[in-house]
Amino acid sequence: MMNLKLVVLDRDGTIGEVCADQPDVEHSWHPLPGAMEAIARLNHGGWHVVIAANQGGLGRGAVEMAVVNAQQTRMNKLLAAVGARVDAVFFCPHAPDEGCRCRKPQPGLFEQIGERFGIELRGTPAVGDEDEDLVAAAAAGCEPHLVLTGQGAQYRGRPVPPSFPAGTRVHEDLAAFAEFLIERDAPLPSAAT
């Protein structure tokens, strides 16, 4: 197995505003403040960033694949403008009632990521704004991180509910998570001899 510094992020509510199933392609996805820069910091710290997202609007027929592609293109342009990138995007196109294995809280997307990158995901940091994001991540062996943006904002100032995996770490936003991860990953200063 290769040694790869990988982090898995949810998209809506974690990187960008929660998207209603909007047909207005040009205006249907906006980054959260500081999120693009947080991904740049992760990239510059040697981390490969992958997105795992539910796109149930596709399965319900509420949104076309062209809209999802346009949102992704917009995100990639905004990332590039700050010197950042996402290495891959994995998404579940199924409606919630379809019973697939790839829709979070099932771990299928994470399993696909592990296969694609040829790595075990045990201990891989995974970030989301909802319990379903982190339940799926933990089921695949990832280290769960909650951001208090998107749906996560409702947990600000409150303890993490029992529906979240044990050991879930909480961060104000993606920028705070990036700072935490980079500091934790930094080599310890060596003692002078």
What do you see in this structure?
The structure is a single chain. By secondary structure, this protein is an alpha/beta fold. 33% of the residues lie in helices and 15% in strands. The protein contains six helices and six strands, in the order E-H-E-H-H-E-H-E-H-E-E-H. The mean pLDDT is 91.
Q: What does the radius of gyration come to?
A: 16 Å
> Could you give the order of strands across the largest sheet?
3-2-1-4-5-6
Kindly report how far apart the N and C termini lie. 36 Å
Estimate percent helicity: 25-40%
Total number of β-strand segments?
Answer: 6
Query: Mind summarizing the main beta sheet?
Result: 6 strands, parallel
Query: Can you tell me the residue ranges where pLDDT is under 50 for at least 5 consecutive residues?
Result: none
Q: So how many helices?
A: 6
Please report which band the strand proportion falls in: under 5%, 5-15%, 15-25%, 25-35%, 35-45% or over 45%: 5-15%
The global form is globular
SSE succession: EHEHHEHEHEEH
Class by alpha and beta content: alpha/beta
Average pLDDT reading: 91
What attributes characterize this protein structure?
single chain; 193 residues; alpha/beta; six-stranded parallel β-sheet; 6 helices; 33% helix
Write the SSE topology.
Elements: E1 6-9, H1 35-44, E2 48-54, H2 56-60, H3 65-81, E3 88-92, H4 108-117, E4 125-128, H5 131-139, E5 143-147, E6 169-171, H6 174-185
Parallel strand pairs: 1-2, 1-4, 2-3, 4-5, 5-6
Helix pairs in contact: 1-6
